[in-house]
Amino acid sequence: MSAKDHLVIFDTTLRDGEQSPGATMNKAEKLRIAKALEKLRVDVIEAGFAIASEGDFEAVKSIAETIKESTVCSLARAVDVDIDRAAEAIRPAERGRIHTFIATSPIHMQYKLMLSPDEVIEQAVRAVKRARSHVDDVEFSCEDAGRSELDFLCRIIEAAIDAGARTINIPDTVGYAIPEQFGETIRQIIHRVPNADKAIFSVHCHNDLGLAVSNSLAAVMNGARQVECTINGLGERAGNASLEEIVMAVRTRQDLFDVETRIDAQHIVPASRLVSTITGFPVQPNKAIVGANAFAHESGIHQDGVIKHRETYEIMRAQDVGWHTNSLVMGKHSGRNAFRTRLKELGIEFETESELNEAFSRFKALADLKHEIFDEDLQAIASDTLQSEEDARFSLVCMKVCSETGVVPRASLTLLMDGREHKVEGEGSGPVDATFRAIESLVDSGCNLQLYSVNAITSGTDAQGEVTVRLERGGRIVNGVGADTDIVIASAKAYIEALNQISRGGVRQHPQAADV
Ligand code: KIV
Ligand code: ZN
Q1: Please, which domain of life does this record's source organism belong to (predicted)?
Q2: Are residues 439 and 338 in the same domain?
Q3: Can you give the CATH number for the domain in which 446 is found?
Q4: End of a domain among 336, 370, 387?
């Protein structure tokens, strides 16, 4: 048995991560991510905000039905309707948690809630008791704790613990804290709250000043035993603390930390890729742990050192976090069983045989174009297949693009819209522009293109390009992702996927909105 404390890893990719503009995920996508998180052995999965919409409720419920090894949690504002809905969504879970919160900073209490501090305490206590009437595992958060008064925090936390909260979360909601000061705040709270020994203290840091991970680690050094974080640091505005950075910092610097996590780090890179593919948020190459360059040595001096003795320039081993140097997995002659097995190893399982068949034929088509198929290719194939199985209003049948020096690029596409085929054409400043114009000549979506980006999924000129298209309409932002060895076709797929998401519509409540 280790003498070290257990650090609870609470992943909120599916809730706070989804609050990143455009990172909306559907139920099937959330379930895939939840399974990857379970494989990673995260302790708690915050599966969503059940009251936000029917879709969010269903997603939390299906995660609660499926996940066995992690606690499944739903967020709820400190009001009865939210708490009851959260309880209903997590009911099927083997281990369920309700996470309720209310703002505690003077600015939020005065301008957002329009409540006095005493009224806020009263509401918090009522909420915790109501949540406890449904489940034993209740977490209470003091929203905007980073800008709250220490005395008031201590008062409300003591009351919440008395009311039955088992985890007390101190969020730096607006990313205002500085490590030394935040660590000291946590130390003071734990020291001053008389019943602090009856709860686990948690932190939830945002990255507005680029300090989310540092602040979380400072808190751990001062007694926090749960960290709330997200894969790739996804999250509202500049994001949340990144799970992979927290976990690897604690593991790599065991000389400094009195805690251990139970994360299976080998699944970090696959989980990072999955989240990136599903949300369309690429991982920057120099991102710690999961960026393409995180373990690449460019300079001759570094390369020479690493060859002589790896630890001269490497503090972690790439393979320990799931990077495989030779991740060539399959080729043209690989069979259906090998394909299914490899997908399973990557955490991808299709619900129906027809999905598997469709993915397998995409794999065969890709293997004809590109002889080496990597894990990343398989992940893109799976995402494409699962996207196309959903209630898609639009889809691409075929397309042709002419691009020639001195001639205006032209695109002709055949599209399916509401089950009927349409032929469309367009001209533009380049082949992608011509393609988007051709699609819009039929759809006339009224969307603004906010982002268009292309990333090579693997290396080499025969690699698949993964295109992300971000569209905005009436304040709603969606991302569409498409992959193909032809980047113009990938662009068309991504644009069409974004249009499908726009057409699915749906209004969701934001958990931190004022109108409770
Ligand atoms: O940032 C925040 O304060 C939150 C809470 C709802 C925990 O996300
Ligand atoms: Zn947050």
Answers
A1: Bacteria
A2: no
A3: 3.30.160.270
A4: 387
Looking up residue 173, the CATH number of its domain turns out to be: 3.20.20.70
Share of the chain above pLDDT 90, in %: 72
Q: Is residue 314 part of a domain?
A: no
Length of the chain: 516
Which residues lie closer than 8 Å to 474 by C-beta, 6 or more apart? none
Residue that the structure tokens 């905007």 belong to: 144
* 363: containing domain: 328-387
What is the dihedral angle through the alpha carbons of 294, 299, 304, 310, rounded to the nearest 10 degrees?
Answer: -20
Is 173 a pocket residue for ligand 1 (Cβ < 6 Å)? yes
484: tokens are 């193909």
- pLDDT score recorded for residue 516: 59
In this predicted structure, what is the pLDDT of residue 174?
98
Tens-digit pLDDT profile for residues 240-290 = 999 999 999 999 999 999 999 999 999 999 999 999 988 888 898 899 999
Supply 417's token pair.
Answer: 């819209």
The answer as to whether 239 is a domain residue is yes
Q: How far is the CA of 240 from the centre of ligand 2 (A)?
A: 7
Q: What residue type is assigned to position 379 of the chain?
A: Q
Task: Report residue 76 as tokens.
Answer: 């709820």
Proximal ligand: closest to the CA of 177 = 1
